[in-house]
Amino acid sequence: MSELFDAVDALVASRSSLPPAEERKRLRTAHGLTLDEVAGALGVRRATVSAWESAKKPVEPRGPEREAYARLLGQLAELYPAPVPATFTGAPAPAEVETPSAGPASEPAGAPAHVTPQVPVSDLVDPAPAVARRAASNARPASTSRRPGARRAAPAATSAGGTDPRFENGPLAVVDVDDDGQVLAYCTGGLVLEVPAKSLPSLVEWTLKEARLGQPKLAGPGKDADPLLVLTEAALERYGLPTMLTEEERLAGRLPEGHRVVKQLARAEWKLTKRGFGPWARIYRPAQGSERACVQLCIPSWNALDTRHWGEAWKLPPAELARLLGVYASRVMTPRGSTAVTGLELMTALHPATRASEPDADGKRHSEHNPGSLGKDPVDPAPCEAPDGHPLLKDLPRFHVRGPAEKLFEEAYDWARPMTDAECTLRHLVGIDVNMAFAAGANGLNVGLGAPAHVTNPVFDPKLPGSWLVDLSHVDLSRVKVGKDKWADLEASLLPSPFTPKGERPEGPAWYATPTVAYAVELGYEVRPLEAWVRRENGRYLDGWYNRLRDAYLATMADLGVDADLAPADFLAAMHGYKTRDPELAIVTTAIKATVKGGLGKLRERPRGEGWRPGEPWRALSRPTWRPDIRAAVISRTRINLHRKIVKHAAFTGQYPIAILSDCVVYAAGGPSPLDFLPYRDGKPLPGGFKLGINPGLIKHEGTQDVLWGEEVRERFNAPELNLARYIKDGTVTDVDNGE
Q1: How far is residue 735's CA from residue 233's CA, in Å, rounded to a whole number?
Q2: What separation, in Å, do the N-terminal and C-terminal C-alpha atoms of the chain show?
Q3: CA–centroid distance for 314 within its chain
Q4: What is 181-246 written as a DSSP string?
Q5: What are the backbone angles phi and psi of residue 653, rounded to the nearest 5°?
Q6: pLDDT 10s digits, 437-465
């Protein structure tokens, strides 16, 4: 029984309340204690104690260190009462119990997970004169090891370095300066390292030689991720960098070549990539054999963390920002730039362009093409796949507008229709949203790996990736197949066409990606392509990419209390307010979703300034991952997946959508919940229809508004077909959005 009591006492003590950071520092200094003395007593690093006392960005201790620290502060508070009545006693306070969203634990150095204080706390609060006490303390360890690898095992959610000793301190660090002027590196898992570097070049050297930061490669022939340093405004000032870019620098995306820090790097023989010293600078030296020397910088105050995808992450204290980015790095990959850039880099990291060959006659290995990858050289798209302004189209007349028979136009839905009289009698408009719809569209999709081949009068093959010129105007949605040999009669006027983003029925031959043409066949109609550009070298290139992003999303949502196996009503309840349970992890989910969409968008990246003119190549075209055909195939499949569910739902229930925007669909319903119109029976959804759940491809509740709201908005803007899916989430309509 005593063991149970001890366990209970330890559990209560692990949540001992602590005074504010300023009071912690006051109590220590009032007794004449140094940071080193407290660190030595508690078995942690000097920098860790400093972080506990940081008024701007305090780090909360955890575990046995918290119990001992609370005991120390409690005894000091008795000796040195605050000017006003103090409420802190060092005893547990239920109202101040840490929640799962509290900051990460701090770390001891060179010690196991459970650390016994090296010096009795009572020795530190001995009321003897400070001089005598300090003399006695000289015989005790004044500080712990500053070895960068000294850390406690990090929680699974933030441990990204694995067991590789080269990266035992995690993938990244947030570099900041404390109130005493000490430069600190906040790593994942709560570890805080002291940084001795006095200049940016020496910071890069320290990172590569001592910090033990980085991340193991994601695929056999790939490369390890370079360490990432996130520089706070205080760190920028320390290393001679501006805390904000000027308007000219912001537009250029970089510091001028003549900036003194850029010159410092050059003198130290460090190089910058062609993008220069910008929000996501890469500092490197040419590789020596297999050894790489490269450090990535992220500068939040220069808008490196776009608020559309990272929310208010740039405002977080260093320890919390390290935790947030660490979770993303461990589950997705170490950020390489924007979420879009990282999404694209993840594809390459999982399918490196080359691999080492088998040994030749002399026993030497050589670099060779890695099967299943996109290779190391870019390929030209088919003319129909090339966006306007591409060099392939330079001979077109200057103001020529390509029509559907000249240009592949696979995009997401933006469609709406007026409500019927029957729908107007219902009370609610309910929006449902497909989880990670584009990721689900990529799952299992066969895409081209190499260059396209032109074919005239081909026989359509649904397994062959490509672009097909075919007339689908004969497909009549009033009668379609909804299963094997099972036909359904539908109200075609209430459905969007599956073949165009605006939902309009095609009027003649047009270019389509393979999934779109395959769906016409699935609906029961014959297709006869006139010509095609097909890719005979193909494979499921995006499967690994999808799996990693899916797992990252599901794991993070599970941490937020939304599991993948919840019953429909329980799922809706769990989704309500999930972002407030841990706002930092909620930001991670947003970043993961942005990684999906942004990565796919980068497959057809357009010119970004660069002094580009139509008909000239732009920088993105030099990448093997510039593949508009793959982007088109994913979007095509995503749109078709959604239309298939809509058709199944209509055939079974007689209900039709009134608006669709990308992956959001709005229905008129008698109640405010998706369960008021989704046909669940005994907890089971309609086969092939909509299903509530957190997995990619399943749906969640996007928002509910009154039918009267929808009618009023459309009347106010004199737009009977205003896309209400755009505003269903919160009902706010500031102006008519044209969808661009």
Answers
A1: 37
A2: 68
A3: 14
A4: S-EEEEEGGG-EEE----SHHHHHHHHHHTS---B--SSTTS-PBPPEEEEPHHHHHHTT--SS--
A5: -110, -20
A6: 999 999 999 999 999 999 999 999 999 99
